[in-house]
Write a structure and sequence with these properties.
Helices cover 47% and strands 10% of the residues. It is an alpha+beta fold. The chain folds into 2 domains: 184 residues, Beta-lactamase (3-Layer(aba) Sandwich); 131 residues, Beta-lactamase, CATH 3.40.710. A 5-stranded antiparallel beta sheet has the order 2-1-8-7-6. The protein has a 3-stranded antiparallel beta sheet with strand order 3-5-4. Helix 1 packs antiparallel against helix 14, helix 3 crosses helix 7 and helix 7 packs parallel to helix 10. The two termini are 19 Å apart. The relative contact order is 0.19. The chain binds glutamic acid (GLU). Glutamic acid (GLU) binds next to loops. The site of glutamic acid (GLU) has 11 residues, from loops.
């Protein structure tokens, strides 16, 4: 069993912040006009422990666009509503190996939309959210689930929502192509709108870290103490994150960092170290693959410094 002092975690988070703060490189996402305008200097790290303590450095209370990290939340919601097997059958759990918004991936894998953590699977997941046919009811379920995972309410960034709605032509094609293949389980336009809205939610690094810890902690929110989902769903959601959290560069990320994490083009990254903590970092400039440069560096630094890696020896004490 590995022993880690909480004080060491506090120092490592501070160190990571200082080291990464001045790092250069990357550019804000520019295909969504709202995101292009966000201050590129913003940077924050939050790490939430199962005790409910959140260790923070930098801009951890700045509200930014959650974007693709919202896919993790809605995946949890449909897992809660339908169970693990039905999600595997209706959506899937495979990496596409292609970009997050790939039309090609849908054409190649006609039998299912791959995973709830790429655009196609996420729109499909939104179409599955109950109560079916009721846009307000579905949105209520999506927003309540976000609150439960993060322990506080996320707010819709209206300007971002308008900005995305005005420019989401590719996602519109995805929704209708999925309909063509029978993988949209409600109205396609409604499903797309719910997806666009969930991506436009404002979140803080602190809220993301708490959601990450709820997943790391078997569904028990460490701050509110609410059991948000059944423990058995925890490895399912973590495996989805591990498989495709950085889209077609997920393998490189896992190989280098050893922690399943999900990135979003708003500059946020949420990481899950099962049984240990949830971690989030936020900084708008992205690398060429759409992942935050500083958030990746900070999370990698912290897990490496603490010597944590989900692929390490579990130190099992066998009984004869
Ligand atoms: N709303 C964005 C889109 O659908 C999210 C993409 C992302 O964060 O990777 O293009």
């Amino acid at each position: 069993m590995k022993k880690i002092k909480i004080d060491d975690i506090r120092s490592v988070v501070k160190e990571a912040y200082e080291k990464v703060k001045t790092m250069q490189g990357g550019k804000n996402a520019n295909y969504i006009p709202f995101l292009a305008k966000i201050d590129p200097q913003l940077f924050g790290i939050a790490l939430c422990l199962p005790t409910g303590e959140v260790i923070e450095a930098g801009d951890t209370n700045y509200v930014f666009g959650i974007e693709s990290v919202s896919k993790v939340y809605t995946a949890v919601l449909v897992l809660r509503q339908y169970g693990a097997d039905e999600i595997l059958n209706k959506i899937g759990a495979d990496a596409t190996g292609l970009p997050f918004n790939s039309i090609m991936a849908i054409l190649l894998e006609k039998d299912h939309p791959s995973t709830p953590l790429v655009n196609a699977g996420a729109i499909s997941a939104d179409s599955m959210v109950k109560p079916l046919g009721d846009s307000n009811g579905k949105w209520g379920a999506i927003a309540d689930n976000m609150t439960a995972l993060s322990g506080s309410t996320l707010v819709l960034l209206d300007e971002l929502y308008k900005s995305e709605t005005a420019t989401n032509f590719n996602n519109r094609s995805i929704a209708w192509l999925l309909k063509n293949y029978g993988r949209i389980y409600d109205d396609p336009d409604m499903s797309l709108d719910l997806y666009t809205r969930q991506c436009s939610m404002g979140v803080t690094a602190k809220q993301l870290a708490i959601a990450g810890c709820t997943i790391a902690n078997g569904g028990l929110n460490p701050v509110t103490k609410e059991q948000v989902f059944k423990e058995e769903l925890s490895p399912k959601i973590t495996s989805l994150i591990a498989t495709v959290g950085f889209y077609e560069h997920t393998g490189d990320w896992l190989y280098n960092s050893g922690i399943p994490a999900k990135s979003g083009v708003g500059g946020g990254v949420l990481g899950v170290m099962p049984g240990a903590f949830g971690i989030a970092a936020f900084a708008p400039p992205l690398d060429e693959f759409g992942n935050s440069v500083k958030a990746q560096a900070a999370i990698k630094y912290i897990t490496q410094k603490l010597g944590l890696n989900i692929f390490r020896n579990n130190n099992i004490d066998f009984e004869m």
